[in-house]
Amino acid sequence: MARPETVVVPSLLAADFARFGECIDAVKAAGCSWVSVDVMDGHFVPNLSFGPDHVRMAKARGVIVDAHLMVANPERVAPWFVKAGADVVTVHWEACRDAAGLLREIRRLGAKAGIALKPATPAKDLAGVVGGADYVLVMTVEPGFGGAKFMPEMLSKVEFFRKAVDASGAACRVAVDGGITVETAPRAAAAGADCLVAGSAVFGAADAGRAYQALVRSSAAVESRGG
Ligand code: DX5
Q1: Which of 16, 197, 212, 219 is the best mutation target for the ligand 1 pocket, counting ligand atoms within 8 Å of the beta carbon and taking the most?
Q2: Is 12 exposed, middle or buried (0-12, 13-18, 19+ CB in 10 A)?
Q3: What does each C-alpha distance from 8 to 108, 119, 176, 195 come to in angstroms?
Q4: Which of 24, 65, 72 is nearest to 48 (CA)?
Q5: What is the pLDDT along the chain (227 residues), one digit of tens a residue?
Q6: Is the CB of residue 26 less than 8 Å from the CB of residue 211?
Q7: Residue 134 in contact with residue 124, Cβ under 8 Å?
Q8: Residue 25 CA from chain centroid, whole number
Q9: Which atom number of ligand 1 is nearest to the Cα of residue 141?
Q10: Among the CATH numbers 3.20.20.70, 3.30.9.10, 3.40.50.720, 3.40.630.30, which is that of 7-224?
Q11: Atom of ligand 1 nearest to the CA of 202
Q12: Cα–Cα–Cα angle for 109, 136, 111, rounded to 5 degrees
């Protein structure tokens, strides 16, 4: 399976919540087709954020929506987000009782299934589930808040999953999330990431659309070097 074109996925966690729809419109106008809704329950991570209605609102703006569930009970919550229209539902390895089973259930319900891992979780622990996922998400920060510092030591995990996905021939994206900027995006792409989730670097900028396009350019350059 050829490596898909690298995509930049703005995270709405960093958006102005009073202008949620307009923030999506701004990056969509700049060419963005996929946004991430970071769902936090105050248990799995020390923050509270979005619910299914935010996915519905985002879908109404005409973009692909990934619901990244940083929650302690993903088996119970994942169906809510598929029902709300999420195109991708990403759950955390650390919170799943049966990760492979939940990925199958998310797909059965009609969404693509993603599996995410926190910085402390070894990549090898997930070697058996990547074949059943559409998306493996390497957290490059400790999840819970936007604006945290990129952890370069996570790039070895990106390389691990790039190799595992390429060897399996699975149509699985390798994603990174946390501290992605025009400086770190090329490094992540060079390590093998083809999906770059960025919040502060997009919605923390004066012009989110231009910031999105700058991130796209920064990672595309790596592909052209065969990174
Ligand atoms: C987990 C969240 C953040 C967010 C992106 O904390 O998933 O990683 O999406 O954050 P920044 O602002 O670092 O791009």
Answers
A1: 197
A2: buried
A3: 27, 21, 10, 6
A4: 72
A5: 678 899 999 999 999 999 999 999 999 999 999 999 999 999 999 999 999 999 999 999 999 999 999 999 999 999 999 999 999 999 999 999 999 999 999 999 999 999 999 999 999 999 888 899 999 999 999 999 999 999 999 999 999 999 999 999 889 999 999 999 999 999 999 999 999 999 999 999 999 999 999 999 999 877 544 44
A6: no
A7: no
A8: 19
A9: 8
A10: 3.20.20.70
A11: 14
A12: 15
Ligand 1 pocket (Cβ < 6 Å) reads 11, 13-14, 38, 68, 141, 143-148, 177-180, 197-201
Amino acid at 197: V
One-letter amino acid at 19 equals R
Amino acid at 117: L
What is the residue extent of each domain of the chain? Answer: 7-224
- Give residue 131's identity as a one-letter amino acid code: G
